[in-house]
């Protein structure tokens, strides 16, 4: 959606929505992830999830530099596709923590 209009107000709205959903992602990473792992391996599971987040964060500038020079909208579209894939994967997680004791 960010790439379909060059109006600054539209781009500000899209950037704000992206920031909001990125904060939701961090909430999932640091609140939901520890709940789905048993206590003895909770730190390891959360650490691996955080590691994957950091690797993706390091790869993002490389993708932007590589693809962005050939297709300026490519990195934004790639990010949108990855967010959608993460959303679909989250919908299929088998563990529901609502109403359950964590320990």
Q: Enumerate the spans where pLDDT stays under 50 for 5 or more consecutive residues.
A: none
Tally of helical runs: 3
Largest sheet: none
What percent strand? under 5%
Global Rg: 17 Å
Percent of residues in helices comes to over 70%
Element pattern in H and E: HHH
Averaging pLDDT over every residue, what do you get?
80
> CA-to-CA gap between the ends?
42 Å
The oligomeric state is: single chain
The total of beta strands comes to 0
Number of domains: 1
The geometry reads as: elongated
Structural class: mainly alpha
What's the layout of helices and strands?
Layout: H1 8-36, H2 42-68, H3 74-91
Helix pairs in contact: 1-2
Q: How would you characterize the overall build of this protein?
A:
The mean pLDDT is 80. α1 (8-36) runs antiparallel to α2 (42-68). The protein is elongated. Helix content is 72%, strand content 0%. It has one domain. It has 103 residues and is an all-alpha fold. It has 3 helices and no strands.
């Amino acid at each position: 959606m960010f790439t379909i209009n060059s109006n600054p107000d539209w781009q500000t709205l899209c950037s704000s929505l992206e920031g909001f959903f990125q904060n939701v992602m961090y909430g999932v990473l640091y609140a939901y992830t520890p709940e789905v792992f048993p206590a003895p391996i909770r730190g390891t599971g959360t650490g691996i999830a955080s590691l994957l987040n950091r690797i993706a964060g390091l790869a993002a500038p490389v993708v932007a530099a590589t693809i962005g020079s050939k297709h300026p909208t490519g990195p934004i579209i790639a990010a949108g596709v990855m967010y959608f894939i993460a959303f679909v994967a989250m919908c299929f997680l088998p563990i529901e923590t609502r109403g359950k004791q964590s320990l």
